[in-house]
């Protein structure tokens, strides 16, 4: 028996349960989200490739203009080193480079935003910026360096480098003749042929990165789901937090029942008559033509509650009328505060008429 209990304890501590929606929301608020850097990198690379494809003529045209100016300046090298000329030359170089690269940099920035939004959605949290002692603890840092996660990331980086290097090697080996012959061509042909080779190589690299990104995202998803898994004990604790402790809820219901009972017993004193079974059912009836068109039930009960209703009635000089069938019907079909249904008008009216006649006699 003791062994069985211990095994049950261990099973409760194992993360075998799927994460609850609350667990997922809390993890997201803490900054723990499903995100792959490989997907972002592949998306940026694809965007840059398309950017170069669409803006290729613009980039080459500006590059030619820049190089024309640069080669022209070589003819008068000495004047370049004058203070004013050096500043003007530096400004022109920066402006030319920004003109050439700014569109591509902007495309890369937008691609990074879109890639992250697709994976994570809109998320703003300061939890990841909070200072945690374990982040600056050298021992914890050392553990992270040699953890399983760090080893996996290292292997992934090595694999990515090897695959990319292999693709690059195969491409160069295949086009080595064309690459060597570039030096024998005119400048414009060199640019065109080189650009064509870059685009050809880029398509291969993008394909490789897309496959690696898919595999990495799949790995990240499996790892993310594993980290979010919960133990049975965690689910029980979460249920207590969201639904409330059963013991506390039971006490609240009991308190509410006592308050309702006290209010009902207080209302019994206003009754015109209490109809009894007579031993174990009691129904208190009130008729106020200013409020309602029909009599209504002030209180009802069975067993001990019925005895208390009759006791309060006797203490307040309320007449008790024995009518087994009517008491049972009222108890079963009419709720506290509800009007008497039409099919019981006659029976209740007869009881009230009897009560009023007794009062008149007194």
Keywords:
362 residues; two-stranded antiparallel sheet; 73% helix; 2 domains; four-stranded mixed beta sheet; 7% strand; name from scop; alpha+beta; 6 strands; 14 helices
Can you describe this structure in just a few lines?
Helix content is 73%, strand content 7%. It is of the alpha+beta class.
Question: Could you characterize what this model shows?
Answer:
The chain is of the alpha+beta class and 362 residues long. The protein has two domains: 35-123 and 132-231, no CATH class; 265-361, secretion proteins EscU (name from scop, 3-Layer(aba) Sandwich), CATH 3.40.1690. 73% of the residues lie in helices and 7% in strands. The chain is built from 14 helices and six strands. The strands form two sheets. The protein has a four-stranded mixed beta sheet, sandwiched between helices. A two-stranded antiparallel sheet has the order 1-2. Helix 3 packs antiparallel against helix 5, helix 3 runs antiparallel to helix 9 (187-228) and helix 8 packs antiparallel against helix 9. The longest helix has 42 residues, at 187-228. The two termini are 74 Å apart. Mean pLDDT is 79; it is low at 1-5.
**What oligomerization state is this entry in?**
single chain
Q: Numbering strands along the chain, what is their spatial order in the largest sheet? A: 5-4-3-6
Largest sheet: 4 strands, mixed
Low-confidence region ranges: 1-5
Written as H for each helix and E for each strand, in order along the chain, the element string is: HEHHHHHHHHEHHEEEHEHH
Structural class: alpha+beta
Q: What is the arithmetic mean of pLDDT?
A: 79
| Alpha-carbon Rg, integer | 43 Å
Total domain units: 2
Termini gap: 74 Å
Helix percentage: over 70%
DSSP summary: helix tally: 14
Strand percentage: 5-15%
């Amino acid at each position: 028996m003791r062994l069985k209990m211990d095994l049950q304890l261990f099973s409760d501590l194992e993360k075998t349960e799927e994460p609850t929606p609350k667990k997922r929301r809390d993890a997201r608020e803490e900054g723990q989200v499903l995100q792959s850097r490989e997907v972002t990198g592949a998306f940026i690379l694809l965007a840059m490739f398309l950017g170069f494809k669409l803006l290729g003529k613009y980039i080459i045209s500006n590059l030619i203009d820049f190089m024309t100016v640069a080669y022209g300046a070589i003819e008068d090298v000495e004047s370049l080193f004058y203070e004013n000329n050096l500043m003007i030359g530096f400004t022109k170089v920066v402006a030319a480079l920004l003109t050439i690269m700014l569109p591509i940099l902007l495309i890369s920035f937008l691609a990074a935003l879109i890639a992250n939004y697709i994976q994570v959605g809109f998320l703003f949290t300061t939890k990841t910026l909070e200072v945690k002692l374990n982040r600056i603890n050298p021992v914890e840092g050392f553990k992270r360096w040699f953890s399983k996660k760090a080893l996996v990331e290292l292997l992934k980086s090595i694999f990515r480098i090897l695959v990319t290097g292999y693709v690059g090697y195969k491409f160069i080996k295949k086009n080595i003749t064309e690459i060597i012959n570039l030096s024998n061509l005119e400048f414009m042909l060199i640019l065109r042929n080189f650009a064509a080779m870059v685009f050809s190589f880029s398509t291969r690299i993008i394909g490789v990165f897309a496959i690696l990104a898919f595999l990495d995202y799949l790995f990240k998803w499996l790892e993310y789901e594993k980290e979010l898994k919960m133990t049975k004990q965690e689910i029980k604790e979460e249920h207590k937090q969201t639904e409330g402790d059963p013991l506390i809820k039971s006490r609240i219901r009991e308190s509410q029942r006592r308050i309702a009972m006290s209010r009902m017993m207080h209302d019994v004193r206003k009754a015109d008559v209490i109809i009894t079974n007579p031993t174990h059912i009691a129904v208190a009836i009130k008729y106020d033509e200013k409020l309602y068109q029909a009599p209504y039930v002030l209180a009802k009960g069975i067993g001990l509650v019925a005895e208390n209703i009759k006791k309060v009635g006797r203490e307040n000089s309320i007449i008790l009328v024995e009518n087994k069938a009517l008491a049972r019907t009222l108890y079963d079909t009419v709720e506290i505060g509800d009007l008497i249904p039409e099919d019981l008008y006659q029976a209740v009216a007869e009881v009230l008429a009897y009560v009023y006649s007794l009062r008149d006699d007194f």
